Amino acid sequence: MSSDGRRKVSRRRFMTETAGAAAALAIVPRSVLGGRGHVPPSETFGGALVGCGGRGRYTFGGLGPNVVRLASCDVKFLDKADNKEVYTDFRRVLERKDIDVVAIATPPHWHALISIAAMEAGKDVLCEKPLTRFIAEGRAVVEAERRYSRIFQIGTYGRFSASRSPGNILTHKIMASGLLKKCEAVHIKRSGLKVQQWSGIVNAKPQPVPKNLDWDMYCGPSPLRPYHPHRTGGTHRGYWDYEGGGMADMGQHHFDFVQWIWAKDDTSAVEIEAHAPPAHPEACAMWGWVELKYADGLTFVMESTEWGKPYDRKRPRGISLGDLSEGNRRKVEAMPDPAPLVDFPTAIRTRQRPGGHAEAAHHSAAILHLANIAIRVGHKIRYDPVTEQVVGDDEANRLVNPPMRAPWHL
Amino acid sequence: MAPSGQLKALVDQMPDPDERGMYCTDIDKEKIEKAVAAMHKGGRKAIVGLIDMLVEPLQGDDVRPVKAKYALHCLALAVCNLADEGPRSEFSLTLASQLGGDRPKAVQAYLVQELQTAGGKEVAGTLGTLLADDVLCEPAAQALAAIGDGAAEQLRSALGKAAGKRRLTIIQNLGVLRDATSVAALREAVGDPDAGIRLAAGWALANIGDRGAVDLLLKAAGAAKGWERIQMTKACLLLAEKLQAPGKQSATA
Question: For residue B228, which of A94, A115, A311, B224 is within the disulfide window of CB 3.0 to 4.6 Å?
């Protein structure tokens, strides 16, 4: 690893490690050979994709044009893994010194662990959403980003365009100023949370594990269940073992940029209440709505429109300069606009923190987990965003940081 | 004893899986809660009756085991939501009383999973006995780690007799619980021939914040290669952070 923290592949190393390797040359000839419009190798990064399902190539594409794919890893590659370019075990990928950047598109129960391990190994990370399966994982990703001074970006990008809108910038500035003492704003997300679509099967019968799949590694930190194909390949979203239904799957898309607009990248809701039937222990299923209140009064609502009575407690409401006193209005108007968010390809070159950094991603995932916890425990919960614990609620806290199956741990 | 007809009728009030096998249509919250409240009134007999209906993993097309599984979890949630601790404890002890016997291991694993939700220190001893079982050790260790209270003694006691995957699981969960009483055994495990054991022990010592493990972990990290080196280095950093935490600074001097 280079001492300046910028893990560029040097020309000499890049050429040494690829010379004579026909397969590698097949991947990288344009950037190696140069030419008009091509990136010179000294600015080229070695990349790996972990999780090569449907989202994989799009996630890898998010790394930008300067990243050359040197390794592909997936637990379903038992029949073709060579531990040179194709792997089933991400640990072997992370041992490679020529890999600088890792794209992670596995199911979410692996997101935090692989992100953390990659940063421990000195790699930068672009990880698919949702960041995590539970809250404590998010804090661990944030700590790894800090401890190893790595670049981390979550794979949802709504905040990049949202942060360019003048109206959103004004809302962001009013909230970030701290001058609005009592916020009565209400943001309601109605539908689009795919609750039925990403539910789990409650009567699944075990089936033989496909020969090409390392099922134990697939389950990883989650319980080793009998195999069923519905637990893999996208429909994994319907199981608490791997994700958290449509709430966790779609929620980070819907709320990550909202969190930026309302200047909540560094905190979380403090009171969460759900309208839902009793949850199933393993399969994600129906819920009606979840109301999340922040300490300053801001309210977010997720409404599925797929079960139960509609949410009717509050109506959507924004904020404006008119909510401030004259003096405070002038102060907000004098505030500079927030700096433009840095995208991942720029971040890995310049070592600037990208727009979807770990802390922001952690907090936008955390509100989804809090919503799911309220659904799962069946009562209103109060959350302390500083300690990241549910207040006085042992049952709920068991879902904030559930144990993992050995040898996996945070 | 076979479940009563009344209990079967209550279980039948639970939702039917839809055509995809999901709980997505005709989910009547009030109907579910009413039936669960009636089951709760049935006390221990009703809980055992529900357990008797469980079939894990599922076989055949009988939908009642599916409903009984859901009903048992609803009951776990219901007793946790009561202000009185007594019903939760009674529920937890009843589940524990059904462990360790002839019930299929997969059914027992499900009961342990429910104890991870609703169990307390009253079942730590029972879960501790399951640490000697190759199948149930992992869920039992996780349930113990979630319960916390009274868990470390069980794991510590089981460590000496455990081998292979069970030993790994127990060491990891001693680390999760930050059990300082285990450090001697964990230091010894850092020299284990099994790399997985070494890594788990190294991380556990770091998470505990064992000042006496500094040299041991530095040496282990220096001698390791590849993934093990990365993880042992992480353990060194974690240990340094733990030792620098408030109240521990003098230890890093």
Answer: B224
